[in-house]
Structures are given as C-alpha cells and as structure tokens.
Amino acid sequence: MVVDIDLPEMTGIEMCEVLQDSGRGLPCILITGRTDARTRSLAAQSDAVAVLFKPFEEEPLLDAIARAIRSIPP
User: Fold this and answer.
1) What is the reported pTM?
2) What is 2-71's CATH superfamily?
3) How far is CA 59 from CA 7, 44, 65, in A?
C-alpha cells in the first residue's frame, strides 16, 4: 500500500497501524512532502517498508514496491 502521511482523517502512519492491528495489514510505503524533524521521526518509527520524500524518482518507488511484495508471506 502506498499512502501519503498527510491524510484528512488520520495520518498515513496511523492508517497503516490500524490495518496492521486489524489483521488486514499490507506492507506500507509512506510518501510525504514534509521534511520537518517531527515527520521524519514519526516515519522512522513506523513499520513502513520505505519512506519517500516528494519529489522522488520512479526508481526508489519501484524498489520500495519490490521490497514490499517480497515481504508478503507466501
């Protein structure tokens, strides 16, 4: 799942945590345009496969997607 950290109702980090806690979690790739220390700290503490800061090239996104797919148990 590719999700922006900044969502209207909750953060993307919270959304990933809610899905994990419900047993329906997917590997999560976080994206954000924010580069402040608080956002970086929250993202670093998450269980995300990757955190990408906008703007980013397509190669890091494709690499993160490949890692996420590999992290899914068979």
Assistant:
1) 0.88
2) Response regulator (3.40.50.2300)
3) 24, 21, 10
